[in-house]
Amino acid sequence: MSRVNFEQLLEAGVHFGHLKSKWNPAMAPYIFMERNGIHIIDLYKTVAKIDEAAEAMKNLAKAGRKILFVATKKQAKQVVADIATAINMPYVIERWPGGMLTNFPTIRKAVKKMSTIDKMATDGTFDNLSKREKLQITRQRAKLEKNLGSIADLNRLPSALFVVDVMKEHIAVREANRLGIPVFGMVDTNSDPSNVDFVIPANDDATKSVELILGALCKAVQEGLQEGKAERANKDDSEETESAPKRERKTRAKKSEETQAPPAEEIIREEPVEAENLSKE
User: Fold this and answer.
1) What is the pLDDT of residues 221-255, one digit of tens each?
2) 165 in the Ramachandran plot: left (φ > 0), alpha (ψ -120 to 50) or beta?
3) Which of 185, 190, 209, 247 makes an SS bond possible with 203, Cβ 3.0 to 4.6 Å?
4) Burial of 89 by CB count in 10 Å (0-12 exposed, 13-18 middle, 19+ buried)?
C-alpha cells in the first residue's frame, strides 16, 4: 500500500511545477503536461518515488543510521525542524555552513565550543570574566546555537541527506556527492535531478506539499527505528537464553570430570605393584 495517494498529493498542490520558460529538460520524464504556461508534474510517478524513498529511509533508520534534513527556504524551514525533531534526526534550516560535510572535523570543533562555553557557565569561570567578555561569549554561543545547535548530536558524517529544493541547496548536494553520501530530494521542474539518488518530483515551494511528503517519510523512519529497536531487543534476549544452556553444559562437564575414572596411564602404573605383592604372598 502506498504511503500517500494521488488525491492527497493533488489536494496539497504537489503537481504544480514552474513556468515552462524556467524548466530543466532533465525533468522531462516526470512532467505530465503543460497548462497555462506551467508544467504539471506526473503524480503517479511522485507516488512511486515517495514509496521508493520511504523504504530506503526506513532501512537506514532500522540500521541505526542518521539522515540529515536540509531546508533553508522560508516555506519549508519550520516543517523540517518539527519533523526532524520528532524523529530525533539532525537538520539544517539556517544558512548551510560551507564544508559542513567535506570539512566535518572543523564543524565538530565549533559544536564542541558550545559545550565548552556551557561548562564555563556552570563551573564558575564566567564569574571571573569582565562584563564585556561575558557579552561576547554569550553572543558567540547564541550564534553557534542558531547555526549548529540542530546538529549537536551528529558525531559522525550522516548516512544520507534529505533536501528540499536541490537547486537552492546545491552546495549541500555537491558535498554529499563528493563524499558518496546518498541524496534524497524534492525536485521541482526547474531543477537538475541528475545529482540526486532518490528523486521525488514535487512542488518544493508550497508548505502543504513539503509537509505531506515529509510526513510520509517521517512515518517510514519511525517504523524503521521501532523495528530496529525490536530486533536489537530480541537479539539481546536470544543471547541471554543461549548463554544459560552454555553455563549449564559447562557445570555438567566439570562435575563429570570430577567423578570419571582415573586416566589409563595411572591404571597402567599401578598394575606392576599389584603383581609384585601377589608374588610375595
Assistant:
1) 999 999 999 988 887 766 666 565 666 666 666 66
2) left
3) 209
4) buried
